[in-house]
Amino acid sequence: MIIEKKSDKEIKIIKEAAEILSQIILKAKKSILKCNSTLDLENIICDTIKKYNCEPAFKGYRGYPACSCISIDDELVHGIPNKNKKIKRGQVVSIDIGIKYKNLYADAATTVFLDSQDIDIEKKQEIKNLLEVAYQSIYNVLPYIKDGVRTGDVGFHIQRFVESKGYNVIREYVGHAIGRELHEKPDIPNFGNPGEGLRILSNTVICVEPMVSIGDWHTVVDKDGWTVRMKDGKLCAHFEHMILVREQDSQILTDHEAIKPEII
Ligand code: MF3
Ligand code: CO
User: Fold this and answer.
1) Nearest Cα to 116, choosing from 108, 124, 127?
2) CA of 120 to the centre of ligand 1 (A)
3) Is 139 in the pocket of ligand 1 (CB under 6 A)?
4) Given this model, what pLDDT does residue 4 score?
5) Cα separations in angstroms, 258 against 23, 67, 97
6) Is the pLDDT at 177 greater than 80, yes or no?
7) Cβ neighbourhood burial of 82 (10 Å; 0-12, 13-18, 19+)
8) Ligand 2 center from residue 120 Cα (angstroms)
9) Does the predicted model carry a pTM greater than 0.70?
């Protein structure tokens, strides 16, 4: 398998794309409570992508019909925006967006909790903890990411951290490299064994996207052919940062402020 390193010029553009995407995600988070449905939020996201002179990367990808994936509560990823899917306080909402900018790609996701007085304190604490653990799993694996690290090592450290906190990692969906395509090889799983898998090279950019569940890790796909939800109907969370792999270390390209979990 050919893993293509990026030129310095390409990396500069991917960094810009990650910055722009971070702004788009911030705007989506700021707008979420104004939205009646996930389609309202999708429309704001599409407009913002255009405003930044970018193209939506998801629309048309394997036939996906929208600019964003908006997944609520037990929906894990790939939720298709729909006017009948209402956004309400008390929900856990993940927002996943991809853009194409100067022929290169950026892809990132966050999960927010829409705080509600109707939810008891213990449940709220559990939700906050779920989001925090899923997000922190990225920072926990970061020190291991550098030239030559194996995909199994990355997965192992994410899985170990998440399981040590009492949650589970989803096995059916994985992260990926990115740049000239939305999804490039190698896959970046959130589970694995040290020393296994392909080597991740310097001058590549990877999307580390932990998907974490409170219950069992098995998922099912809805009749719409896209929306992935937890089989047991329990809550889950998804975060996705873009990370530049360098010779001796790595650098997160998407903004902490945009991707970090938010209680809104
Ligand atoms: N961030 C998701 C991923 O990396 C986006 C799904 S792409 C879609 O797989 F276009 F299929 F939605
Ligand atoms: Co992705």
Assistant:
1) 124
2) 33
3) no
4) 87
5) 7, 18, 12
6) yes
7) middle
8) 33
9) yes
